[in-house]
Amino acid sequence: MERKAILPAALILDLDDVMWHDGRDLRYIGQASRSEFPRHHVPEDYKIIDQLGRALNMKIICPICLGDWDKDNCLRGVVGVTHNPSGWNRKEEIDYELAEKFFEAAESSPYIDYCIHGLLHGLYDENGVRLNEKEYSRITEDRRVELLPDCELDKHLDLFQHIYDSWGFKKKIISFCPPCGFGFADKDDWGYVDRLSKNLYKRGIRYIIARWQRKIECSKLNSGVWYMEKNVKFGIPSDAPDVDPRYIREFAEEGEEVFGEVMGMHWANFLHYYPQNNLARLGDWIEYFQRQAEVFGIMLSRDIRFTGNQSIYRNNSKISYEDGRCIVDISDALALDFDDLGKEFYISFKNDSLPKSCEGGKMELYESKNNFKTYKITYENKIIKFSF
Description:
Elements: E1 5-6, E2 9-16, H1 44-56, E3 60-65, H2 90-93, H3 96-107, E4 112-118, E5 123-124, E6 130-132, E7 137-139, E8 145-147, H4 150-167, E9 175-176, H5 190-201, E10 207-210, E11 219-222, E12 225-229, E13 262-266, H6 282-292, E14 298-300, H7 304-315, E15 318-322, E16 325-329, H8 331-335, E17 344-350, E18 357-359, E19 361-368, E20 372-379, E21 383-387
Parallel strand pairs: 2-13, 2-14, 3-4, 9-10, 10-12
Antiparallel strand pairs: 1-17, 5-6, 7-8, 11-12, 15-16, 16-21, 17-20, 18-21, 19-20
Helix pairs in contact: 1-6
């Protein structure tokens, strides 16, 4: 039976590894780099994020690495966080004039939404040898992933916060994206995510996005933090610069039953070797996202909170039909008792089945597409009934 109503997934773009200074891949000499880009970064590299977010009215999730910003040398002498624990000296290496331009470009844009990623995207031994690129986990000899002890987690996250505060960054961070996802972690071991979530919750984090379950869509509440999977169907290599959206697969297609919410990519995917050409594909990217928004079951998000809020209602509500009415039961969503949950959700109806009234909530037209309309519902009861 063709679906006439659906709570759409709120699609949001995630760009990992923002804020490195040196774009070159230095891992071949044992140093830290994840931009995988054959030139240094320039202030113009932030503009493509700002302009795309502005065109889509979307705050783009930007998991940031802050080790390069260590102007106080707080990483020096700390085991586990850097490739050069004894000789670490970013205080002398930073080009402060350039760094201030990076700071202004990132801070001034309302569409660059910071997300905790890490310091230098890795875990190192006492000699500075990189053990893995996950930063918050150890990989055992039998390839199991173990989360660091709480004291080690605190060390990494406290250092991140120190560097963030030392520059005067002001944006409130409410999301976390683990470097390289949760990788080989046991897909049934939600205790791994739960322990991490407890630490993050006390720091104001309410959302985790990651690749782990290898699914199109997967979400779960863990100790007050909402987990969302990066859509496994969509993936582009982290070292692929200047991606042309005209030749990549669609994030979602009409008629699909399962939709993801998080489109995981990397900063370098949007950058050109010649930075003056960074915006050359902007129009094509805008068209790409506008095309996804025409799929019944997809809407474009405004920010991570918008995506998470809709995800909770979408994945924990029931749609049924009775006496010619469409009934949405949001009891399970409200029972989660998530402290960042809003009182509104969104529902789309096909053009040949548009509701005329709504009982149990306030209904407002949010947007119109070619084949359907999406309504914003501010609920008043746990059961909302739509009449046609």
